[in-house]
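Entry:
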Amino acid sequence: MNASPEMIPSEADVEPVSRDNLSSLLAEIRSRRNTFAVAQQIPGDIIDGFKRVGVYRAMVAKRFGGEEQTPAAFCQLIERISEADGSAGWVASFGDGACNLAALPDETLAKVYANGPDVVYAAALFPLQSARRSAGGFVVNGVWPFASGSPGAALIGVGIRVEDGPIGDLPRVAVVPAEKVTIRPNWDVIGLQGTGSHDLVIEDVVVPEE
């Protein structure tokens, strides 16, 4: 979807996110935390709760509808969630795409936030998988482990190295809509069981240079 500047909400259009319901969300997390381990993920309604209390918009630029909070304020919010449940705090923290996607061009970020700032992100970067250039960008294939929070994400990043790229070239992250990624459930561990850190599988997905 292409987003023109007039589609991006202005500061005047954005209502401040209320923190009044944070306490109720934390109580809900505490009461259900044992079910997170059984499900091996944080359930969708809790992810929606993270959106309501502003987890995903906290660090997003105001021109995209976000709050541009300080890193300290964001960390304090994550600390409160983590006190209720470690897995929930882990997933809330890693779901923040604003920092991870900050190097993307403004035009691309406008598309990412075209429908609002509460975009849930997940990533698994290593081992880097080889991607070849094509007319449309990069053709991405591979398997990546430890993708925390991937079951609730809208965008997923995976680490790639470009075939025939310069020696010592920096790794890249291919950002892919979640519907183009297969999540392979295999997160059977002792600690942080609710993080849903499953494997990601991608087959012949073309990721544009943008």
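Strands lie at 121-134, 137-147, 155-162, 172-177, 182-184, 198-207.
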